[in-house]
Amino acid sequence: MNGIDLLPLGVSLLIGLAAIGSCIGIGLSGMKLLESSARQPELMPELQGKFFLIAGVTDGAFIIATGIGLWFATVNPFK
């Protein structure tokens, strides 16, 4: 078995683990947003803006990992 045989497994792990991490991160931050807005409703606009910033950064990391994985799948640098 060589590196070319393991490339699909590596790409799927890269994309899958990034997706799982992104979903868990956004879920936890959304949970904390709802909890904090229930405690102090007057801070909701500020907290919502920060939440969307964090959600965008988290999704950006997933999209970058997906792009790198698909690049490795199509270019196959191990030939």
From TrEMBL:
It is found in: Cell membrane. The keyword Transmembrane applies. The chain crosses the membrane at residues 6-30, 51-73. GO terms for molecular function: hydrolase activity; lipid binding; proton transmembrane transporter activity. Pfam families: ATP-synt_C. Its main location: membrane. It is a multi-pass membrane protein. The keyword Nucleus does not apply. CDD domains: ATP-synt_Fo_c_ATPE. Belongs to the ATPase C chain family. This is ATP synthase F(0) sector subunit c. It comes from Piscinibacter sakaiensis (Ideonella sakaiensis).
